[in-house]
């Protein structure tokens, strides 16, 4: 077994890695949406601003790639942080490939000054399907400690039915009053909202529960925001967005988004839902989530499910999601290795 670094020029290893990823997802969490091929292949050719990416494959003596890992580095903030995603083909889990791969990418991370390493594992959650726990056990054996648990949930695209949805929407709209205007769009952020959306995006790290994860605020500039949108376009990832704009200031005070990926006509991925702390208590989160679902249904009639995850301690957002019909599927355990 040898560990080799590869990149966008290695078409065969990219093909093999996608096959490994597909098989691993099917074996480990078949209920969950899988990477689309277009999105996965774009990871090799286009990198989000403020990021660097390194790829490694575990290759058997006969030349068969049995596992691969992706290392993500931040290049602006969080310069001590490395994030590792690793996948092992289900037919090759009886040897040392997984442990060897982790040892290699951990050493690579440390050699590049990354003293904090984060990785994750799917885990069982009450009422959900079984998860074997092997990855979590491996991480624990290597000295990682559990830093955050996020619960993965799924909702039908029309969870409440038209009458209940209209009632909930009208109640939330009345609670918000005339202070806010709802703005919606598909794709890039309108120019007149770019600066205020950067402010909201920068706010995210301070406003969502991160457990014990060590993470610095990332400063989002207009240039970085537009560069992210450009990568999304190549990935085939389209964002459906709804915001609440304070009429008196023109500032976005709440924001929700759902991603639709080219190649998946069934699943939508709920992104951030955030309300400016000074503007909570007006039902803006619920109002925008309901408005955004309407827009997704209009734009993508084939979408059937919306997937979301939240920290297990994020009670306010969990309450909204449960109100909207989200049912628990499983959970994701974020593990952190220091030093």
Structural overview:
There is one protein chain. The model has no long low-confidence stretch (mean pLDDT 96). α5 (162-176) packs across α8. The chain is 35% helix and 32% strand. With 339 residues, it is α+β, with helices and mostly antiparallel strands. It has nine helices and twelve strands. It has helices at 11-28, 37-45, 97-111, 134-141, 162-176, 194-207, 222-235, 284-299, 315-323; strands at residues 2-6, 51-59, 65-74, 81-88, 116-123, 145-156, 180-186, 237-246, 252-261, 267-275, 305-311, 327-338. Strands 1-2-3-4-5-12-6-11-10-9-8-7 form a twelve-stranded mixed β-sheet, with helices on both faces. The two termini are 27 Å apart. A hairpin with a 5-residue loop joins β8 and β9 (252-261). The longest helix has 18 residues, at 11-28. 30% of the residues are buried.
Walk across the major sheet and give the strand order: 1-2-3-4-5-12-6-11-10-9-8-7
- Low-confidence parts, pLDDT < 50 over ≥5 residues? none
Overall pLDDT score:
96
Decide which structural class fits the backbone: alpha+beta
Q: Helicity, in percent?
A: 25-40%
Biggest pleated-sheet summary: 12 strands, mixed
Roughly how many Å is the radius of gyration? 21 Å
Gap from first CA to last CA:
27 Å
């Amino acid at each position: 077994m040898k560990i080799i670094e590869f990149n966008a020029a290695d078409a065969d290893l990219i093909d093999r890695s996608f096959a490994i990823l597909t098989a691993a997802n099917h074996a480990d969490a078949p209920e969950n949406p899988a990477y689309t091929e277009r999105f996965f292949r774009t990871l090799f050719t286009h990198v989000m601003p403020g990021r660097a990416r390194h790829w490694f494959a575990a290759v058997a003596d006969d030349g068969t790639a049995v596992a691969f890992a992706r290392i993500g580095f931040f290049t602006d903030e969080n310069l001590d942080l490395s994030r590792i995603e690793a996948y092992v083909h289900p037919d090759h889990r009886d040897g040392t490939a997984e442990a060897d791969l982790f040892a290699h990418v951990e050493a690579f991370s440390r050699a590049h000054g990354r003293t904090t390493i984060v990785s994750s594992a799917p885990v069982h959650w009450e009422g959900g399907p079984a998860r074997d726990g092997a990855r979590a056990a491996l991480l624990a054996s290597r000295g990682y400690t559990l830093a955050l648990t996020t619960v993965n949930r799924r909702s039908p695209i029309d969870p409440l039915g038209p009458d209940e949805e209209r009632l909930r929407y009208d109640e939330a709209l009345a609670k918000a009053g005339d202070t806010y205007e709802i703005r919606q769009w598909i794709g890039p952020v309108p120019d007149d909202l770019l600066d205020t959306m950067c402010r909201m995006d920068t706010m995210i790290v301070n406003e969502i529960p991160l457990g014990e994860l060590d993470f610095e605020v990332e400063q989002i500039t207009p240039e970085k925001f537009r560069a992210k949108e450009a990568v999304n376009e190549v990935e085939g990832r389209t964002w459906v967005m709804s915001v609440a704009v304070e009429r008196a200031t023109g500032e976005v005070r709440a924001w929700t988004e759902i991603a639709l990926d080219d190649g998946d006509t069934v699943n939508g991925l709920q992104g951030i839902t955030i309300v400016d702390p000074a503007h909570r208590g007006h039902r803006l989160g619920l109002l925008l989530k309901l408005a955004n679902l309407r827009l997704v249904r209009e734009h993508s009639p084939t979408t059937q499910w919306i997937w979301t995850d939240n920290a297990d301690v994020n009670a306010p957002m969990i309450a909204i999601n449960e109100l909207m019909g989200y049912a628990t599927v499983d959970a994701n355990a974020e593990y952190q290795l220091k030093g």
